[in-house]
Structures are given as C-alpha cells and as structure tokens.
Design a protein that fits this description.
about 350 residues; alpha/beta; 6-stranded parallel beta sheet; 11 helices; 17 strands; about 25% helix; binds NADP nicotinamide-adenine-dinucleotide phosphate; binds zinc ion; oxidoreductase; zinc; NAD(P)-dependent alcohol dehydrogenase; NAD(P)-bd_dom_sf; ER
Length: about 350
C-alpha cells in the first residue's frame, strides 16, 4: 500500500482536518500521480454535509484533480512518468454495459465508481478524492492534460468544464440559439465560456447584481438579475435553452416560463430537496425538462483538447488548504469568483 495524506471529513458535522490513509499498490494498468491542484466543487460541500444522503466517512473530497505522473504499472501504455495527468469525477465503471461501451461511463448500468464518497467495483473498497497528495487510478480513467494552459486553471475543467460542455454538445447548442445560464458560479461561468465559444447568444440569470461586469467579461451578451421582476418579464418566453447550475432550492416553474416553445430546461445543479413542477409550466410551451451528469471519459478528453485548442480555462482563486472552510462559507453565499482551487503544495 502507498501511505497518503489528505484532508478528510469524519462526519457530516465535523470540519475537514488532516488525515492519513493508504492508496492501493499499483496494479498493471494503474497510474499514480502527485496532485498539484484540486478544484473545489459545490458537490464537495453537498456530500460533506450529506445533503443527498448516503455519504461515506471518512471522506476525502475533490474531483478536479491535476498533477504529474510519478509511477506507472507494468502494462500501462497511455502514460509515462513525468506526464501531466488529470482525473475528474469517475475512477471506474463496469466497462461492459451498453453505456460504458458507448463511452458514457457516468451512466454505467451496473453503477459507476465516483472519485470519492463511493465504493470501488468490488463493492467494498472506499474511494478517496483529490484533497490529498497523490492518487492511484486505472489508466482508462486518467486524462491527458496539455502543458499549453495554466495547470491550476485547468483543474476545474475536470468537473465544472465537462458538466457544462457535455449538455451543450448533446443539445447541439450554438449559432442561432438563445442560451440562458442560471447561476454564475463554478459551473455557470464555464457554461458561459462554452456557450459563447459555440456561437450561442448567452444570457446570465443571476441572483447577484454585482456579477454583471464579470459576466460580460466572460463573454455573456446579456445579464438579468432574477430578483428584478421587470427584468425577468422582459425575457419571458425567449430562451431556447436554460442551463440550470443552481445549488440551492429554487422555483423551476418561474424559469420554465422564460423558455420559448420547444425550449429545454437542463438541470445540472443538484439542490438538496426535490423540485415541484406544475404540468402547465411544460405543456404551455411544449417545453422539456432535462438533466445531465458530468461526462464520459472520451468526451472529457475531447473537452480538454477543445479547451487547449481554444485557450479556455476556469477563472480561479487559489487557496491554501487550511482555508478550505472559508472557501465553503463563501460558496454557500454564492460568493465564488469563479472557482476555488487548492494549491496542494500547501498540504
Ligand atoms: P457554485 O460555484 O456554488 O455556484 C452555484 C451558483 O448558484 C451560485 O454562485 C449562485 O449564482 C447560484 N445560487 C446559489 N444559491 C442560489 C439560490 N438560492 N437561488 C438562485 N441561485 C443561487 O456551485 P457549482 O460548483 O457551480 O455547482 C452547482 C451545482 O451543480 C451544485 O448543486 C453541484 O452539486 C452541482 N453539480 C452537478 C454536476 C452534474 O454532473 N450534474 C456536476 C458538478 C456539480 P448567482 O450568484 O449568479 O445567483
Ligand atoms: Zn464537481
Ligand atoms: Zn457499465
């Protein structure tokens, strides 16, 4: 076994604190990489607090992981020592179901293995995430990272990036479409960048009037403060797509009314409580309510390559790991600009 150190939550109510644990000894197809940077996703906070139920402790969060390969198993062909590597939200899946065979490992029919707060495919071994010094992952679940971009700003692409890229690609959002991005946080700001890059007219729908200048800098064409009724009314029935990245409970019926006929409201945010949707909100405009979960391995690599080619990275605020609770506190207030990234050298 490989001795490792990280930051872990011991229960839903305890603060994160230093914790020593072990990574598995490398199998023939395993890659070990030292973690240089790890992004802080709102899902980390949801899972630490057990917002969604079923959390496993001790929990080492973190699924936006980049670093340098330090060891490879005897049969590894895709990576060598010294390569820059990344891992996102997935570290394994059954690899044999129809979805896995299609590269949609996130929808594995037998149950995917998340990077943390999950059990391995053996059903017993817990997984530990990126708030740690190094990680061991099967080479099929490790991504190649270009050295063209700032590595710390690339880390958030592994979750915030792919989670917004994947639905925009699936629904072929682009030129001629009006896209609204609901919530300008980690996911939201990446949705703006991709939406603009794909040619859509992008409107940010935000609770924070103070984010307007940033939204425009990110490339958004319009900005609407959702608490301002007049502003909301002015965009009623206008959007082809709404990409909903909000982490807290909110009224979907209100936002569905902003969609035009045939419009699609795509949920990626996962508030702790279920939505209540009135049938009239959908039938009144033949609207669809949809959802999307991260992205599979082939599409994640495609997204990373697209970002390298187009110079797309996350807007980040680098933090020392000992300040993680302050970062969570700001995240809960919607005050993230626009992704915290932990400098793992501070561990
Ligand atoms: P984040 O950085 O905290 O951003 C969330 C944004 O939502 C906030 O910045 C805020 O933007 C807005 N917001 C917060 N509270 C709100 C409220 N009460 N009403 C309306 N808007 C509110 O979080 P994130 O890391 O982007 O994650 C967002 C959500 O996506 C989380 O629930 C996370 O678990 C989920 N997620 C899902 C997937 C997936 O695969 N589907 C992957 C990753 C994350 P404004 O200030 O602009 O209003
Ligand atoms: Zn995430
Ligand atoms: Zn599968």
């Amino acid at each position: 076994m490989i001795p490792s150190k990280g930051y872990a939550a011991q229960s839903a109510t305890s603060d994160l604190a230093p914790w020593n644990f072990e990574r598995r000894t490398l199998g023939p197809h395993d890659v070990q990489f030292d973690i240089q940077f790890c992004g802080v996703c709102h899902s980390d906070l949801h899972q630490i607090k057990d917002d969604w139920g079923g959390s496993i402790y001790p929990m080492v969060p973190g699924h936006e992981i980049v670093g340098k390969v330090v060891q490879v198993g005897s049969h590894v062909t895709k990576f060598k020592v010294g390569d820059i590597a990344g891992t996102g939200c997935l570290v394994d899946s059954c690899r044999s179901c129809d979805n896995c065979k299609e590269g949609l490992e996130q929808y594995c029919l037998k149950g995917r293995t998340d990077t943390y707060n999950a059990l391995g495919q053996d059903g017993v071994t817990p997984t530990y995430g990126g708030y740690s010094d190094s990680i061991v992952v099967h080479e099929d679940f490790v991504l190649h990272i270009s050295d063209k971009l700032d590595l710390a700003a690339v880390a958030p692409l592994l979750c915030a990036g792919i989670t917004t890229y994947s639905p925009l690609r699936h629904w072929k959002v682009g030129k001629g479409h009006k896209l609204a991005v609901l919530g300008l946080g980690g996911l939201g700001h990446m949705a703006v960048k991709f939406g603009v890059s794909f040619g859509a007219e992008v409107t940010v729908l935000s609770t924070s009037a103070s984010k307007e200048a940033d939204a425009k800098k990110l490339g958004a064409h319009n900005f609407v403060v959702t608490s301002d009724e007049a502003q909301l009314t002015s965009v009623a029935g206008t959007f082809d797509f709404i990409l909903d990245t909000v982490s807290a409970p909110h009224d979907l019926n209100l936002y569905l009314s902003l969609l035009r006929v045939n419009g699609v409201h795509i949920c990626v945010g996962v508030p702790p409580t279920p939505y209540q949707v009135h049938a009239f909100s959908l039938i009144g405009g033949r609207r669809s309510l949809a959802g999307s979960l991260i992205g599979g391995l082939p599409e994640t690599q495609e997204m990373l390559d697209y970002c390298a080619e187009h110079g797309i990275v996350s807007e980040i605020e680098m933090i020392d790991i000992k300040n993680i609770h302050e970062a969570y506190h700001r995240m809960e207030k919607g005050d993230v600009r626009y992704r915290f990234v932990i400098d793992m050298a501070t561990l």
